[in-house]
Amino acid sequence: MMNKVALIVVSTLVAAVSLSGMGLPSTVSAEALPVPPGNTSFINDDFNGITDAAVTSTSTVKSIAGYTANVTGPNGSVSITSSGKDGIPFPSDALLIRDEDGANGSGTVGSGSGSTTITKGLGTRVSDGILTVEQDMYFYGPNNDISRGRNVIKLTGGVNSQTNMSDTVIQVDLKGGKIAWVDTGGIYTNITPANLTNAVWYHLKAVVNLNTLHVDYYVTKGNDGTLVGELREQPFYNRTLGSRAGDFAAIQSFSASTGGTTAENIVLDNVQVYKLNAPPDAPVGLYGIGGDRQAALSWSAAPNAVTYDVLRGDSQEGPFTMVGQGFTKAASSSEPFRDAGLTNGVTYYYVVRAVNPYGTTDSAPYAVTPSGERPAPVPPQGISMTARESAVMITWNAVPDAATYTLKRSTAKEGPYTVVSAVIPNTTTSYYDTGLNADQSYYYTLSSTNIAGTGEESPPLEVHPSTPLDEPESLKATAKSGQVDIEWKGSEGAAVYKIKRSTVSGGPYTTIGTTVFTRYSDSTVADGTTYYYVVSAERASARSMNSSQARAVPYTAPDGAPSAPTGGVVEAAYGQVMLRWDVVSGATGYTVKRATAYNGPYTQVAETKRAAFTDSDVSNGTAYYYVILANNPFGEGPGSEPLIATPSRVIIVAQDGSGDYRTVQEAINAVPANQTERTVIYIRNGIYREKVIAPANKPNLSFIGESRKGVVITYDMNVTYHPGLQTATFELRGAGSTMENFTVQNSAFPNKDTNGVKGVGQALALFVSGDKMVFRNINLYGFQDTLYVERGRQYFHNLYIEGTVDYIYGNGIAYFDRSEMKHVGTFGGYTTAASHDQTAENGYVFYQAKKTRGTTSLKPYIQKYGQAGTYTGVWDDVWDLELQGVSKTNSTVYLGRPWRPYGNVKFVDTWMDAHFYSVGWHNWGKVENESTAVYGEFGSTGPGANAKARVPWSKQMTVEEANALTVQRVLGGTDGWDPTLTGVFAKPISVPGEHNDF
Length: 998
Known about the structure:
Blueprint: H1 4-10, E1 39-45, E2 55-56, E3 63-64, E4 67-71, E5 76-83, E6 89-99, E7 103-104, E8 107-108, E9 116-126, E10 130-140, E11 150-159, E12 167-175, E13 178-182, E14 188-190, E15 201-209, E16 214-221, E17 227-235, E18 249-258, E19 264-276, E20 287-291, E21 294-298, E22 307-313, E23 320-327, E24 337-340, E25 348-356, E26 359-362, E27 366-368, E28 384-388, E29 391-395, E30 404-410, E31 418-425, E32 430-433, E33 442-450, E34 453-454, E35 461-463, E36 473-480, E37 483-489, E38 496-502, E39 510-515, E40 519-522, E41 531-539, E42 542-543, E43 550-552, E44 569-573, E45 576-580, E46 589-595, E47 603-608, E48 612-615, E49 624-632, E50 635-639, E51 643-646, E52 649-653, H2 664-670, E53 679-683, E54 686-689, E55 692-694, E56 701-705, E57 711-715, E58 730-732, E59 738-746, E60 766-769, E61 773-781, E62 787-791, E63 793-797, E64 800-803, E65 805-810, E66 813-817, E67 820-823, E68 829-834, E69 844-847, E70 850-853, H3 859-865, H4 881-884, E71 893-896, E72 904-908, E73 911-912, E74 934-938, E75 955-956, H5 959-963, ...
Parallel strand pairs: 51-76, 52-53, 53-56, 54-57, 55-58, 56-59, 57-59, 58-60, 59-61, 60-62, 61-63, 61-64, 62-65, 63-66, 64-67, 65-68, 66-69, 67-70, 68-71, 69-72, 70-73, 72-74, 74-75
Antiparallel strand pairs: 1-19, 2-5, 3-4, 4-9, 5-6, 6-19, 7-8, 9-18, 10-15, 10-19, 11-12, 11-18, 12-13, 13-14, 15-16, 16-17, 20-21, 21-24, 22-23, 22-25, 25-26, 25-27, 28-29, 29-32, 30-31, 30-33, 33-34, 33-35, 36-37, 37-40, 38-39, 38-41, 41-42, 41-43, 44-45, 45-48, 46-47, 46-49, 49-50, 49-51
Pfam family, one: Pectinesterase
Keywords: Aspartyl esterase, Hydrolase, Signal
Family: Belongs to the pectinesterase family.
């Protein structure tokens, strides 16, 4: 099962072991695996033959197998086990860290929030060299849930202190189903890009370099040694450790534990902690070039090396003489080691020596011949320049013998040119130049530099960054036989329009024509085929993104036949779908056709003389698509746009007892677990003071409010007074669930300490953890962390959300379509805190959004219901932005910061008020996030838009990049999900204030 040897093969960190030709074990070894040669072992436990009794919360003996156990919950224990989940046998005994208190993602398990911890000392303090931790791991939790946080490795000791032995040096957790390391700020960095599998063995290796204060992590599968994740050169738990001279860490103990509020189990086997007492690996990648009486060398970093020496000889066999000593990092092509005073025409041989406290290892020799005739490198070729708003992206082909590149810029072709960067390393073949003026021509040249000097500059290339044009609006497509006529509202400043078409909703689209007019006829179509059209505007130096999409199906209709019906309205109830549409001039009757897919095939279900029809031959839980065609004595005309509805069971929630239940939670509890048919929970107007949990085992729930502001679901849990618990007012976990037409709020107040009253901190309104969820016409009110999209794909249409700090955050792939985000804090903050995986192409996309600022909508609720001593405290007018005269132009808010390194956020065609910092984005205090976070904008407008001043590590997107961000392409995934085709869900047949004219 476990394959530790395979991991050692993967890692190059132990130089003294040669594993070539070794057989790889496929099961747990019956004996403890040997510590690799050249190492000193501190812990080496396989748990075989251990007869110690299990430790529980009531045990008097608190040790087992040499580990101290601390169990605080009644449903926790530490014991030796020979089998795992559901009694699956292990090949050998292992250590079970059990905790079934607290809650998991599918509901409450146990009765409390206990935790289980095991700890073992190393028997010494390790403060230098290389310390390696290896262990086999197997996870399982109730309902197959292993998503919750658990600490699988923690090394503790002292940090810059001879007396403090409890500082965390490294900590690795199972978080969100992935293995990740965590820092002092609670920020997780994933080691495994994908989720682990329940009840499967994995192997974790952490190589801790106490000299450089960095760690390399590796995770492999236990059955075959497949590498499932690695992360190198990560800082210690305290990221700032090493920033000051004399910083050090000393490791003294190993531990693992469950989380305080989770219901989880960890199984560990073959736990090893050992210290490298062997020389470093040999440096590789040694490369040198000769110049006039000198040589320049570079090489790759060698595992386990502390310093490097450079030696020179007259032959490949030596002897070699020291010419450089004690370098703390490998030399690069942009910062090479230079050896001067040489003789031109003579060949010299160099080796690089890796050094650590246990010895030295030399690289293979490399020959260099200095020459005064060495030519300077040629300029880069294949230069490409892409204009963006106030920025230019320059790319080029690598020059083989270049050490660095120099980029210059001018506003005139003849110059003068100024240096943009003279130290672009040879490993980089692109540069993003920011802070440019829109509608200004720029000229760029590139040159290459090496030890022989700087070569000629490339010919100047012109590029013209510009502000995007507004996209065309009100696109309409009218189908005829063999033709589709298109018209639209033009864009100011446009010279021409490009017409694009696709047979797939959301594109990608192909250009089929260009015109200077605001109309176009496409006669290259086939009758019966569905087409999707968009139009973009252009002029010489600027373009727009695509317009909204229009659909058309060419249709051959007899002369005199009526036109397609319009004004269609559809409603659903239990066991029926009701349709109505506008009367078509000249029509004597109508045909209703139905399908179970948007593009058909459609089958006739009715003929009617009225402009209405009720379909009672339907199955609850099935989505139906309807097309209506008008007819008269001349024949049948073209079909209408499809109408979509899903009939289903409807549960009514009403506080006055007139419904099925009085609370939302009671209605959820009444739905059977694991049913696949959709159920609607219809909520009548009222303020529902309850914490609502819709668990993962209840998918396909649709929550529909009687009115958007009339239905309010409110609660006031918060992190200050409920630490470690999920504070969300509404937790929605079931895949395929939807919400529409009501308000969810967390009224915990105030967010920050105010006039002596302690702030409540994080207090979520909505927690979302499920795939393919749709939210329409929803209000979310809160202060800190209002919306948590933990995972899955979510579509938000016409969302209104308020908050102050990180009020949209998490790992979900979320599309915000025409939504408003309002900052309600009197202080600064961050709109988003994304935490996406490295593999995510997109994270959050905001399309045609509004970003505003003002007083919280919770004010009247807090004024009415807030009380001293409660979590909904007494309203304080210091939080009224209008009363306090808080300026909307005070630039104290960021568009976002990366909660995890690969946070991914893009704003397309968004209006921004003036409360944003001009730089736009924040790196969360970690420079390394600037190279991993993906932040983009296209066509931002309003006083808070400032493409020229944005941080250079964000990007102004191109038209092509913005056009790719359609709902269908962002959220489609492998199953082609299109949330815009959700349609309507069932409502009670008789809804107060509404009329059903069927």
